[in-house]
Amino acid sequence: xxxxxxxxxxxxxxxxxxxxxxxxxxxxxxxxxxxxxxxxxxxxxxxxxxxxxxxxxxxxxxxxxxxxxxxxxxxxxxxxxxxxxxxxxxxxxxxxxxxxxxxxxxxxxxxxxxxxxxxxxxxxxxxxxxxxxxxxxxxxxxxxxxxxxxxxxxxxxxxxxxxxxxxxxxxxxxxxxxxxxxxxxxxxxxxxxxxxxxxxxxxxxxxxxxxxxxxxxxxxxxxxxxxxxxxxxxxxxxxxxxxxxxxxxxxxxxxxxxxxxxxxxxxxxxxxxxxxxxxxx
Length: 281
Hints:
Layout: E1 7-18, E2 29-36, E3 39-43, E4 48-52, E5 72-76, E6 79-85, H1 91-100, E7 104-113, E8 116-117, E9 124-130, E10 134-138, E11 144-148, E12 152-162, E13 165-176, E14 179-186, H2 189-204, H3 213-224, H4 231-235, H5 239-251, E15 255-259, E16 263-266, H6 268-280
Antiparallel strand pairs: 1-2, 1-6, 2-3, 3-4, 5-6, 7-8, 7-9, 7-14, 9-10, 10-11, 12-13, 13-14, 15-16
Helix pairs in contact: 1-2, 3-6
């Protein structure tokens, strides 16, 4: 390990190579998983495989046979490698952070605010700092943009002309003071695919929150602009039932409490859940 390479974690684990079109369960191999600031190493004792961060991407689609939230799936050349670290919680997210932290990208901060394109913003170099709760873009001159991970609502992959060249672009949408902000980031396909996977993992956390029919109705009503104090009449339930639903939604992280009793405000997780519920209708 070189002097500028830092060990981040080590865990017992398993890995397998997967054909992107595979429909049958792959054959897993036990290994020791070592994640550093430069690569991930799969050590089997008699042999080891090193995957440098610069040589991998996050795949566009993942076969169902390895599609698990705790499984890291990387695209290496024409094949996929699936990796599990049995002793580590949120292992895929830990890997994404290690892969991207300190990367220099091109970024256009707050390019769209409340649906309005900001014509005075342009792309410039920015150093990305990736932490568990925030993504920070540090620009020359001291300016920076901090994106709270739990405020991320969605991402979109694009190809656009950036500084005279056609480049992959990732548009990251998040909420700030009840406004929807879109920041655009460009780099290599590795950069945008890994950052996209990290952001998708962040806003997909809300998918685990199973919602009742009334909870879905309340979220959709909040999403549509119905005031909390009008909720009982709008949904057709009692005030006490609404209060109970608010408490459940607070526990699921879908709303933020504004004042004790009667008022809550939809947050990024709740907007994501409400959008999903509306699409199901």
